[in-house]
Amino acid sequence: MDALERIKRHVDEMGVGCVVVGDHVAIYQARITRAADGALQRSETVQRVRTMQEACGVLGCDCSEPHHLDGVQCPLIE
Fold first, then answer.
1. How far from 77 is each of 4, 45, 70, CA to CA, in Å?
2. Least enclosed by CB within 10 Å: which of 17, 26, 50, 72?
3. pLDDT exceeds 50 at position 66
4. Is 59 helix (H, G, I), strand (E, B) or coil?
5. Residue 49 pLDDT > 70, yes or no?
6. DSSP character for 51?
7. Is 9 within 8 Å of 63 (Cβ atoms)?
8. How many Cβ atoms are within 10 Å of 74's Cβ, its own excluded?
9. pLDDT digit string, tens, across residues 2-47
10. What pLDDT is recorded for position 69?
11. Which residues of 43-64 are buried (b: 16+ CB within 10 A; e: fewer)?
12. Distance between CA atoms of residues 53 and 1, nearest Å
């Protein structure tokens, strides 16, 4: 399994939509927020990532950082 497939697997495990496209993984994010007037607003973005660290930054997970209690790093990180 190459690096992009490992990134895709990790993103899929987080329950977020993604696809490998050429030299990157495209991560789809949709957010619904409430405006000051009470109306719901939907925003959609696609983020391109090439490393696990970039993917974790987009997802907001801490898998690319050593865990502060046990010093263990996510096994998906090269």
1. 11, 25, 16
2. 72
3. yes
4. helix
5. yes
6. S
7. no
8. 15
9. 999 999 999 998 889 999 999 999 999 888 999 999 999 999 999 9
10. 40
11. eeeebebebbebbbebbebebb
12. 18
53 SS3 class: helix
DSSP state of 73: P
**Contact 35/55 with Cβ under 8 angstroms?**
no
- At 70 the pLDDT is 47
Residue length of the chain? 78
Amino acid at 50: R
What does the longest C-alpha to C-alpha distance in the chain come to? 48
Q: Angle at CA 7, nearest 5°, toward 30 and 46?
A: 25
How far is it, in rounded angstroms, from Cα 34 to Cα 40? 5
* Residue that has been written with the tokens 């495209």 in this structure: 26
